[in-house]
Amino acid sequence: MRPIEKYVEAMENKDFAGLAELFTPDGILCDYCTTSASQQEYHIYGKEAINMFFRNKFGFRRYSILDAEVVNDEQAEFIANFGGYNIMAIATVRETDENGLIQRLTVRPK
Amino acid sequence: MGVYAITGASSGIGAKTKELLLQKGHEVINIDLKGGDICVNLATPEGRQTAVDKLHELHPEGLDGMICNAGVSGACGNLELIISLNYFGTVAIAKGVYDLLQKKHGSCVVTVSNTISQGAGRKDIVDLLNNIGDEKRVLSLVSSMDSTNLSVGNSLYVSTKYALARWVRRVSATWAANGVRINAVAPGNVHTAMTATMSTTAKMALNALPIPTKYGQECLMAPEEIAEVMVFLASDSARGVNGNIMFVDGGTDALLNSEKVY
């Protein structure tokens, strides 16, 4: 599976630990959709932070994705749900390392 | 050595703070419902006034510090108690001993909660607490809410703590100009007798609020981790710190709100 497919799978399954393992130790996940939902942007630095952050978001049902579709080698589209507020989003794997671990992934409104 | 008063020091963070202050050679007066040097119910106006009067009687020369720590959690099942003790009890005691703190250029430390940054509070309740301050009206409003619903209790808890933090910020400038520093500590989830015996479901919920300094350990903050910061803020070493809401949560707030730098 390509990293973007693994990302979608982890998000759909609310697998925060699996999601974190897709990233390099200093991998970064930035989500710019949040401002549309009147929240601060998410800038999560490091795999442990990603693990803890999404454990919180999934655990309290503050984040989920729906109707995901991988559109190319680096990108997937989905509806991002922020505590009930839906935004059409596109996630992009910007950088990976030689082992296919994600160094930087961004999520932006589509 | 100084004279410090502290509310809710019969157990938990308060007890540990009292212990640390005593170790430093200070005199400490515990104000609590049970087991205190002054035993009163701070959820009532009469109890608060009794405590204030007693402190004036014991130390008319002034106090070096007032640590307002007493409070109940959102899961206590008593919505009125959350409002009366957490907010009105704290504000009344702090204001009630302000003159004693002025006499010795003392400081006040208020316990809030790191949950204030997580959006679960009710802005309308916070505004009623801070801007109207009518305890009877707020209690009347709260009495119609569902006390069996944990999320209701939690939202009121967060509201009281948010209102306290805002109150600290609002009064801090004038208080400091008059020689009294006031700050708040916002702890993360702390290991207490209550959390030690809670259900698996409740523990899972707590663990979903991650504590980066405890990563991988599935454990909560120790009371002394909070108490040490409270003692610091109350001390002269923190003489430059005023109006600060200090998160002592192992980095939970930074994790969940990294963009909020101010």
UniProtKB/TrEMBL annotation, chain A:
Gene3D superfamilies: 3.10.450.50
Annotated protein name in UniProt: Nuclear transport factor 2 family protein
Organism: Waltera acetigignens
